[in-house]
Specification:
The complex is a heterodimer of chains A (about 160) and B (about 200).
Chain A: H1 3-16, H2 22-34, H3 36-62, H4 66-81, H5 85-122, E1 129-136, E2 139-146, E3 151-158
Antiparallel strand pairs in A: 1-2, 2-3
Chain B: H1 12-26, H2 30-52, H3 55-71, H4 82-111, H5 131-150, H6 153-164, H7 169-176, H8 180-197, H9 199-202
Classes of the chains: A alpha+beta (about 160), B mainly alpha (about 200).
């Protein structure tokens, strides 16, 4: 590729997309008149645009848009009837970023402060208990004793195979 | 460089009219919103269709996008252009859908038994079209869609907004919230890849 062509190619997108004006545009127009390679490339660029537009346009022509508003309108009415979420967002939206971290920090602090109270009540470590079971006629039972609190729990189940 | 207008640029009078419509929409005026929907539905469809490659899905996405726009119209800043904001929402709704569908397709494919027969694609033939033309159109559509699918999302949205909707670089930059330089670079790479992929449909017959 010639060095002049290389320079032109850098601006060819903008030229084809009609983003270039004045001197820059005239320079490329002049080059394209005398360069088959670059004018071929410009034609392929335009062809690509045409291909994408034509394909989307053909699909658009096959579609019936009459129903769009009916469906959108129904959903929009539901939004309006459902307590205007847009209005709620209007107030909460800007605050959301601020209150989510604040609530998270508060929740962690509450857990940290409340944990000694919770552990005092329920015990901070799993307690050792001894579990025993009894089977008598059509009943099964088990009991265990919490040695720390000296409490005995008894559970009795009716046997299914009676 | 000059700020080239989109195909159907909003005129000064039209802009005033649009601002008024948006103001009324914010007050819950559904009739005003209907005017906006009917004004923009074709544009939304073209963008959605070019991203998802399916008319039915595109039409559903148009509805989803308009519902989303209505739900967040209070967020729209009146001093900016409605249509660049509108394009941003449509592009995002369609890209999200495409990502979800791609993921779903991967899962379905993995779960398919290897002996299952492939479902044949239907070809819709127009009344004035011969079967050969219809087949060519179908193949071309598939090739376009496959080529677009291969592009990264940001290149995809840039090239569609430029080539299908005719937005200027400045308008694309606003709609996609990047600089004009980034738009130019995205368009350059997208165009190069598409030209390579669609070479046989771009060569003069």
């Amino acid at each position: 590729m010639r060095s002049e062509c290389r320079d032109i190619r850098e601006s060819l997108d903008a030229f084809v997309h009609e983003e270039l004006v004045g001197k820059g545009r005239r320079r490329i127009e002049g080059h394209l008149e005398g360069c088959e390679v670059c004018s071929g490339e410009a034609a392929r660029m335009r062809g690509l645009g045409g291909l994408l537009r034509e394909s989307a346009g053909a699909a658009e022509a096959r579609v019936d848009f009459a129903e769009v508003w009916h469906k959108v309108g129904r959903r929009v009415e539901l939004i309006s009837e459902g307590g205007e979420p847009g209005l709620l967002e209007r107030f909460l939206g800007p605050l959301r970023r601020a209150w989510i971290p604040a609530v998270s920090v508060a929740a962690v602090l509450i857990l940290l402060l409340a944990s000694p109270l919770m552990f005092d009540r329920f015990g901070s470590e799993p307690q050792r208990v001894e579990i025993r079971s009894i089977v008598y006629q059509n009943a099964e039972g088990m009991y265990f004793t919490d040695e720390d609190t000296n409490t005995t729990f008894v559970l009795i189940f009716e046997s299914e195979s009676s | 460089m000059k700020g080239r207008s989109s195909k159907e640029r909003v005129t000064e009078g039209g802009l005033q009219d649009e601002r008024e419509l948006i103001r009324r929409c914010r007050e819950g005026d559904h009739a005003a919103y209907r005017v906006l929907v009917e004004r923009y539905q074709q544009k939304a469809f073209r963008v959605a269709y070019r991203i998802v490659g399916n008319e039915e899905d595109a039409l559903d996405l148009v509805q989803d996008a308009f519902v989303k726009i209505y739900g967040s119209i209070h967020k729209f800043k009146s001093q900016s252009s409605f249509y660049t904001w509108f394009y941003r929402i449509v592009v995002n709704v369609a890209l999200d859908f495409r990502r979800r569908k791609k993921h779903l397709a991967t899962v379905e494919y993995n779960e398919q038994l290897p002996s299952m027969p492939a479902i044949q694609d239907e070809i819709t033939i127009g009344l004035d079209e011969n079967p050969q033309e219809a087949l060519y159109r179908k193949q071309r559509e598939q090739a376009i869609q496959e080529a677009i699918d291969k592009l990264p999302d940001e290149q995809k949205s840039a090239i569609i907004l430029r080539e299908v909707e005719g937005l200027s670089y400045k308008e694309i930059a606003r709609a996609t919230e990047v600089s004009i330089g980034t738009v130019m670079s995205r368009l350059h790479y997208a165009r190069k890849k598409l030209q390579e992929e669609l070479q046989e449909y771009l060569e003069p017959l």
